[in-house]
Amino acid sequence: MSNPQELRYSKEHEWLSAVEDGVATIGITEFAANALGDVVYAQLPEVGDTVTAGETCGELESTKSVSDLFSPVTGEVVAANQDVVDDPSLVNSAPFEGGWLFKVRVAEEPKDLLSAAEYTELSGS
Fold it and tell me: Given this model, what pLDDT does residue 102 score?
């Protein structure tokens, strides 16, 4: 399992792309997707919602359990991945590509996001 070097990671197993034009893409890591098992339902924040770093903003349901989705940043949701809502298995099959979850216009990025190496050490992945 390889965590892309260009991403930043939260201790709750979300990833965050580099902020471009004020917007970042967010998803869950391959480690988290594997731990969840086969994702069968995704409830994502809606466009216009405000999310707060470290707080719940949705949920993922798998054949094993239900898991809260946390936002790694504070800001306004500008897109939600309808493909994941329609086919939640994308979270498992392509967590860093087509399985992204939502995009946020970042108001504040926390200082405690991890590099790929730090996240790999945390998760053992």
Answer: 98
What is the model's pTM?
0.93
Rounded Cα distance, 59 and 45, in Å: 9
Q: What is the DSSP string of 4-29?
A: -TT-EE-TTSEEEPPPBTTEEEEEE-
Distances (CA, A) of 108 to 21, 52, 54, 58: 14, 9, 12, 19
Contacts of residue 52, defined as CB under 8 A and 6 or more positions apart, other chains included, come to 71, 74
Of 38, 44, 34, nearest to 96 by C-alpha is 34
- What separation, in Å, do the N-terminal and C-terminal C-alpha atoms of the chain show? 6
